[in-house]
Give the backbone structure.
Amino acid sequence: MLTSKVAKRYAQGLLDFTNESGQTATVFSEMKDVVKIMTESQDLKKFFLTPYIDSKKKVEVADEIFKGLSVSSRNLITLVIKHGRENQLKNIAQEFINKVEDINGVQRVTLTTATQLSKGNLEQILKTSNLVKIDSNFDLQVNVKPEILGGYILRVGDQQIDASVKSKLNQVKKDFSLN
């Protein structure tokens, strides 16, 4: 997923601040909550994207929704809204999470399959891949996309293994058109 420069800059600023103040672990946990809330609440997303609602009202609503968070997290959310970047709030929180995981050596793994796989099948795919370091920490996200027809697409960082039926059929089609 491409992350905007805005999200990267705010996340880096927050990371620098939390490292200096010793709040990285707390804010890391809270940013996971922010991502979850922003993902699950379509109404909140629409509210933040509505241009005719002024930033003061958006700050009031955000303060109420995120009142359980630390002062640092609430200040970031207020700052983002006051600068008119509320549409980037989820991306900023996710980028902060990614930066902290990178520092901690957590590998982000995305596995896309056509159907839901058993735990044994997931482990087998991860073990046979040379991209995933099984002995280290990794964060696995499994996506089910029936349009790949079968097989899987394994993405680790910027590397990818595409063992999907759809890509193999496309390759066969391409080979036939060349001959």
